[in-house]
Amino acid sequence: MYVFPLQSLMLSERACVYSMLINIMETREAELKGLGADFVFGFVQSMDGERDPRNLLLAFQIAKNLIHRGYELGKFTEELFEVTSCYFPIDFSP
């Protein structure tokens, strides 16, 4: 599976990608769940290294959706935890 290097994009472009993922999760959930743990792997790889607070808010929303909506995390459960837990505690005022 090819994983696009999301962190090579500009900040605003990364925000668009995260927003598109949120939209797809809301409108095409069955198709994404059909990808199985590969979708989770792709998201973890894409989020890894994100530093912009606004993009992190979007990425955390995606991570929350993965867990609450029952996506198959498979062997990437620990990776999802690691990629999100390294940002805590968060102190951000927009």
Automatic annotation (TrEMBL):
General function of this protein: Key component of the cytosolic iron-sulfur protein assembly (CIA) complex, a multiprotein complex that mediates the incorporation of iron-sulfur cluster into apoproteins specifically involved in DNA metabolism and genomic integrity. In the CIA complex, MMS19 acts as an adapter between early-acting CIA components and a subset of cellular target iron-sulfur proteins.
Oligomer and partners: Component of the CIA complex.
Alphabetical UniProt keywords: Cytoplasm, Cytoskeleton, DNA damage, DNA repair, Nucleus
Domain MMS19 N-terminal: 6-94
Intracellular or extracellular location(s): Cytoplasm, Cytoskeleton, Spindle; Nucleus
Signal peptide interval: none
Name listed for the protein in its UniProt record: MMS19 nucleotide excision repair protein
Record family assignment: Belongs to the MET18/MMS19 family.
Single GO cellular component term: MMXD complex
GO terms (BP aspect): DNA repair; iron-sulfur cluster assembly; protein maturation
